[in-house]
Design brief:
It is a single chain. With 244 residues, the protein is α+β, with helices and mostly antiparallel strands. The chain has helices spanning 3-24, 133-146, 199-207; strands spanning 43-46, 56-62, 65-73, 78-87, 91-99, 116-124, 154-160, 168-170, 177-184, 193-198, 214-222, 229-234, 238-241. The protein has a single domain, classed as Galactose-binding domain-like (Jelly Rolls). The chain has 3 helices and 13 strands, in the order αββββββαββββαβββ. It is globular and about 35 Å long. 36% of the residues are buried.
Length: 244
């Protein structure tokens, strides 16, 4: 085979493989193509604390596309997307988000300050049998109490206030959720910020062990503890194979 033909084949394979891998990876339902109004039905509005108002989610126009708006006024809830098939964790999660303002007093230190201008959760298929007995009991009780399939392991990327960018800590309600601060404060409020996270690397850093498969994504903005008001907006999210 002539060298120039071999080089062309290698180049075309390098270009096609990432695209074909992306096409084969299940993706969260997009917002850009959704009509203004209610979010796509595959994104399920989930409230854990039903004694508090839920965050209001809607599809709104933004420049030349549509995005998800999350409005919270002393409220808390999430919009959850369950992937049709679990995805191996050697992927990057990419998205863009912006906020109206940071939440005053937001911090990982306590339940009373567990409010964030924006959250992006990633749920993992962690084998419950690997957990200590007391943790298994707590998860079963919580699932029965709240009537929802709470994850056994999750990362929660947040736009915070008090904590430093890059800080990682257990959620004050459960150590099965590990918080990672990506943005903080008002310096970038009102600006679209693009994020790209290596999920396997972040899980290893947060939990100290290899990441299981990814099963779902959740988005939110919550202010039920601090009583603040905030609006967050999210563009489409994509799971992109990590370049080896």
């Amino acid at each position: 085979m002539p060298l120039r033909i071999a080089l062309r084949l290698c180049l075309s394979t390098a270009l096609i493989t990432p695209l074909s891998a992306l096409a084969a990876t299940p993706q969260p339902a997009p917002f850009a193509d959704a009509p203004a109004g209610e979010p796509p039905a595959s994104w399920v509005h989930t409230r854990i604390n039903k004694d508090r108002p839920g965050t209001a989610f809607s599809i709104v126009p933004e420049a030349t596309t549509n995005v998800l708006r999350a409005y919270s006024r002393s409220a808390a809830s999430s919009l959850v997307y369950t992937l049709p098939d679990a995805v191996a964790a050697n992927v990057r999660l990419q998205w863009r988000w912006k906020i109206s303002n940071a939440v005053p007093g937001s911090a990982m230190a306590s339940k009373a300050t567990d409010d964030y201008a924006a959250r992006v959760y990633v749920f993992f298929d962690y084998d419950k049998s690997r957990l200590p007995f007391t943790d298994r009991v707590k998860i079963d009780l919580a699932r029965n109490l709240y009537g929802t399939d709470l994850p056994t392991a999750a990362l929660c990327y947040v736009w915070g206030t008090a904590d430093a960018i890059g800080a990682i800590a257990p959620n004050p309600y459960t150590d099965r959720v590990r918080m990672i601060v990506l943005q903080r404060g008002d310096a970038k409020a009102g600006q679209w910020i693009s994020e790209s996270r290596d999920l396997a690397a972040d899980f290893q850093s947060a939990f100290g062990e290899p990441a299981p498969a990814v099963t779902g994504i959740a988005l939110g903005a919550d202010t039920d503890n601090t009583g603040a008001t905030v609006e967050a907006r999210f563009g489409d999210l994509r799971l992109v194979p990590t370049v080896q």
